Write the structure tokens for this entry.
Amino acid sequence: MTYKYFPHTEEDLKAMLEKVGVESLDGLYAQIPESICFKDDYDLPSEMSEMEVRQQFEALGSQNQQLTCFAGHGVYDHYTPSVIPNLLSRSEFLTSYTPYQAEISQGTLHYIFEYQSMMAELTGMDISNASMYDGTTAAAEAMMMTVAAGKKVDRVLVSETMNGKTLEVLRCYALHRGIKLEIVAMKNGVTDLNDLKTKLLEGGVAGVMVQQPNVYGIVEDFTGYADACHAQKALFVVDGVAANLAVLKTPGEWGADIAVGDGQSLGIPMQWGGPYVGYMCCTEKLIRKMPGRIVGMTRDNRGQRAFVLTLQAREQHIRRQKATSNICSNQSLMALWVTVYLSLMGKHGLKEAAEMSYAGAHYLCDELLKTGHFTLVYDQPFFNEFYVKYDGDGNQLYQRFIDAGILGGVRIGEGFLFAVTEKRTKEEIDNLVKIAAL
Amino acid sequence: MNNRLYGNLIFELSRKGRKGYSLPKNRMGGYEIPSMMRRTTDAALPECDELTVVRHYTNLSLNNFGVDNGFYPLGSCTMKYNPKINEEMAALPSFLYLHPEQPTETVKGAEAVVTLLERSLCSLTGLAHFTFKPYAGAHGELTGLMTIDNYHRSHNDMGRKKVIVPDSAHGTNPASAAVCGLEVVEVKSMADGTVDVEDLKRIVSEQGTEISAMMMTNPNTLGLFEKSIPEIASLIHTCGGLMYYDGANLNPMLGTCRPGDMGFDVMHINLHKTFSTPHGGGGPGAGPVGVREGLQDFFPVVSPYHGNFSVMLRAYAYILTLGREHVKEVGSLATLNANYVKESLKDVYELPIDGLCCHEFVFDGLKDKSTGVTTMDVAKRLLDYGYHAPTIYFPLLFHESLMVEPTENESKETLDGFIAVMRRIAEEAKTTPDEVKSAPHLTPIGRVDDVLAAKHPIVTYQQLLHDKD
């Protein structure tokens, strides 16, 4: 009965069953009440050879349409250097688990330390954890962290300019956790500072969350935000797309206490929504309030520099029902993905890619405006994504893009949210504009 | 794996002016990012050429040990073989470059994978619907509890805020309950490690109207099947609560018993355990949540899209490969392997609860406690012999817990090798205890100073540089 994943020969089975003292494999489950045993066949296809599995997946894959991507809204089509998937397929990384045994896990611990260092640099914050599931859940963790760090406060203020997908996840966590999530109004496409100040003065605010660039791609001016928050003992949280931090003013420079966001833009393929990686960074003061794994430096008993999971007293397996987060893994392999990406792109490449994305988006925007069919919904500075209104039938245009093999942005309300990365060529942009101008 | 440490940090290999990337020429030209938007100083990322980066991470990988390196009997983690074909299918370009907000008619293949995987998981668990939004096991627990909480809220049954959790449960269970805004009530275990039904009856009679759910793994954390599960489910259902199945220990049930048939209403599955997707050094996993008919309307929005889709591709490839014929064999072979190891070692290691186990079992350290050799020492000595250590000091029911889970993929020779080494370590504990207490000796690094790391946290390279000054 041997099978490629089961090495048991008849002889092995016999010897092992004898050692265990049961007559057959069924005998191993003698303790299970008959009434709940499963005796049917599973409703599954019959076993497939590797060739058949491949055919099956290729057939399924061929039902997907490959589009030239001008969509963003939190997920971006950046280029992945070949080095990354190649290195990540090393099974010493791929097939290991959480580095509990530091002596045989220095590879993992080491790259997480590098990841933490790089994310702290990018965000301009003191420290980073070992990564989170994605940007939206990192934001939810940040929301809960502000409440846990505060004293008897349960209000969290979120700007209306936050991505709706993130807001939905925040609302879900807040409902169950008993956090009062309130929206700070938007004015001309950006957060209304006056509304924020009014809501802060009502008291009981644990944290204030904003997004940079915001959902419309607009780069907001957060001057005075951190002070307004801190005056009311609220923590200031800035959420943002990781790749943009290469050039944009950092959460640290804005005076943030916590920086969160998605790391997908650092070379992780879109793969229909995941896996990505969330980042979370904070000030040194808050380190013991931060959820998730953290890797720290230490020494081994031979005097060598070594890395280890640290500050575990914060974590769920120690605190159990007193825990303020239930996160127990990180997104380790995706953190490695980002780390290798940042190692390759380095100080200059990341900036260059961000500048290309910026230029591409502004070129596309200018060309679209020139057609006379589009107007910017908000007259505000944007980065690599922008929100425009179309004077014709939007749904029809969107379909025309699809027919031409183009994913023409994300529809938000009546408008189009277009995003451009360094991957989009001038020809692709011109082609989109040509279709839009028809 | 190395036995000498490769210890560089990428930052230490950086040289000003080097680069490891190439980008096409910027032909959009003329668009400058305004200075008011810009950060004042560049992020101090490394500057390295491509080969330096490749060698660095290749060498780092050699400091690591994975399932492909050798036996990895980490209890409760189900470190089974991660088939290579699954990796290749997950990386097919036809799935890799789909934007999650593409219109449905352009992602028919991806949608089909979700439907087919859902149908498979329903058949395997006896439940009716799954949501794939949860990114991990713990995220699945939270999603499941939120589903249950939403269900009670929909009946305006707002007083149900208590979750019953066995005292042997993994710490994530109570932590997930807390994050969901629920209070934990612990139910006692009996001497044989299973739920004390009398204690449960007491809890239900005293607090029945406040019970939201009961969370259980079955088999439990000790690898023992909870025989009273029909009675437990009936007690909880009678008081108006729902039964939550933590899928951490689902593997031994494949082919034998389905959570839906045991009486569970809601469950999560760790695709990275039972369905062979790689653990990746601690993620990404996936924790889809299944429910009985009628509860699917209460799924919460715990993530924006379709969960960790590429993990789902891997799991589906695994299910197709095994097919209905071989999925059935998984559970009993995993169970056989665990019992074989247990029976072969119980004369030298303390087995607190004798009898048949499922996919894993727990020793309470060495039988002979006079040597002073602890479970920690045994675990570290195993590393010298080329094995990953079992899970240690969990569950908390025993002082010297050593939890072994071999999985169905391991051959008798591999198990015999492990058994021989475990016996040898038991011998060494008597003859050369210091050798064991100071282990490991043959790994890239020796035992680390955890206290130093926690007392004086250095968690970034910047802090390290600052510390040197």
In short: Chain A touches chain B through 200 residues (CB under 8 Å).
